[in-house]
Amino acid sequence: MQSSPPTIFVDSLPKGSSVTFKDSTFFTHNGPGATFPSADQVRVKSEAGDHVLDRKNTVIFESLGLVVKFGKEPRVTVVEGQCLWWLRRHLPSVPVPEMYGWTEDGGEVFLYMQLVEAASGSHWEGHELEDIPDPYRQLLHDDPGVVFTHADLHQSNIMVSEGWPCRIVAIIDWHQSGWYPDYWEFYKAEYTNHWESEWVQKYIPMFLNEPRETFLEGINSYAASWGSM
């Protein structure tokens, strides 16, 4: 018998501007008295250039096994922390970093999460709705299913093992995640790269099913209307 999908109850999500998960492995590895780096320590480390590649808002504290992502809303939000917390507990088969906690300081949100030892998946390769003209709106039908999805599956957000066999160890950057039409993830993933790239031609079809042609026409028309093509 197939088990029913998990249900998300908003009231069950951790709330507050400053939350620490004392049952997380951060305290298992660093001791029960361990503390997170302060907001100022994170900022100083970022300004010193000690950040993840071109992501200046993501800082590593390797000795603590910690990554801190910070910034102003909507770029960084507590909602992303809640999403990772929920996924880790209720959908353990989804590879996401463990959420250790978050805080707010000076108008910025700081997400403290697990440092995943991996490489970016990119190494696999060398208007508002009412503003949209009616013909475009008619092409995007209301009958597809609505699903919870990541909404930004670019190679740089898929962390893979450095050794062989290659495996996915974490999917990061969930700040755009939410409830979308079931075709959205496919087209969003395609638009993150050139259509002739190996990512689009080979890898995306491995984990996402191509929606029917009418949706493709609608998405292309919508994208062209605001100049993304």
UniProtKB/TrEMBL annotation:
It comes from the Eukaryota. InterPro entries: AGP_Transferase, Aminoglycoside_PTrfase, Kinase-like_dom_sf. Coiled coil: none annotated. Residues 140-209 form the Aminoglycoside phosphotransferase domain. SUPFAM superfamilies: Protein kinase-like (PK-like) (SSF56112). CDD domains: APH_ChoK_like. It holds the Pfam family APH. PANTHER family: AMINOGLYCOSIDE PHOSPHOTRANSFERASE DOMAIN-CONTAINING PROTEIN (PTHR21310:SF54), AMINOGLYCOSIDE PHOSPHOTRANSFERASE-RELATED-RELATED (PTHR21310). This is Aminoglycoside phosphotransferase domain-containing protein. It comes from Fusarium oxysporum f. sp. cubense. The lineage of its organism: Eukaryota, Fungi, Dikarya, Ascomycota, Pezizomycotina.
